[in-house]
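Quarterly update from the structural biology core.
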Amino acid sequence: MTTTFPMKNLHLRLTARCNKRCEHCFAHLDNKAPELGAKYWLGIIETAEKMGVSSITLTGGEPFIYSEIHELLDRLKNLSTPLKIETNGLLLHEYKEELLQLSSLQTIALSPGLHYEKSYMEDLMARITAWRQEGLPVMLQASVILGNIENQLSWLEKFADHGIPVRLMAGHNGLGSSENLKNISFESMIQIGRRYAAHPLIQCELPGILLGRETSQGCGWNKNRADILPDGHLSPCAAIAWNYPPFVLDYVDADNLRQVWENHPYLNRIRHLKKEDFKGHCGHCDQFDSCCSSCAATSLGIKKDLFAGYPLCDFYFGEVEK
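Predicted structure, tokenized:
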């Protein structure tokens, strides 16, 4: 049995806790939210694989402080679905041997909360280089924070020069709390995106229409992406769910995941969104079907309206080209 909207990207948010407090993020160590056991997550993974999921991401919070991470990693040794991990990297060295045994491990996206100080960055670059030489597929995942942007970018370019892939989130600052969004410079973010539009190792995630591309592929928040929150509730996007209650859907487990994914009325409503449902440039954009308003969490954080249209596109077509 196939579904019109297959689950492609499944994000498992093992914990809401983190051992860092990065400026662009929402997680912190003193979060007291309960955690579900490894047996629960393994059941979810088994069901998702039967549904034909394309990739599974272990994330959080910080997944390596999840209370049953050892058991989970041990049981995932024979996972066939491509596996990704998002981490700040502080505990990565403690799990190196376990990670090397994961045959389907595709990417470890390291988001360290960049300081851009010479000694710190040189040490980080050396550690990532060593991990990659040992066989760990570590890449850098960075969110640009306003203030001395050129220094930040110069370091990211140095990482790329050392063969380290970089995922650059130029328009995603402060999604969890929206505290940093009020300081975002739309013009700077667009300029950064265009600067790296053709770079082989630096991927800047902005709508293709801002980067001079004919098409753009969104994250699939309204069709193919599924986040399972630390308490077991399903969401189309956790970054939206932190601030928008309708995006916290039903509790799911191994038995009802398929049923909720295929039949939840809210999911079926957002899956059929049209550009006419959005304001701003999104309401008449030729790339809407593939982009779907790009990062809707940014629209919510900046304009307090999920359907307001992507702010950077509104700025570009309303200010730059007028």
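Confidence is low (pLDDT under 50) at residues 174-178.
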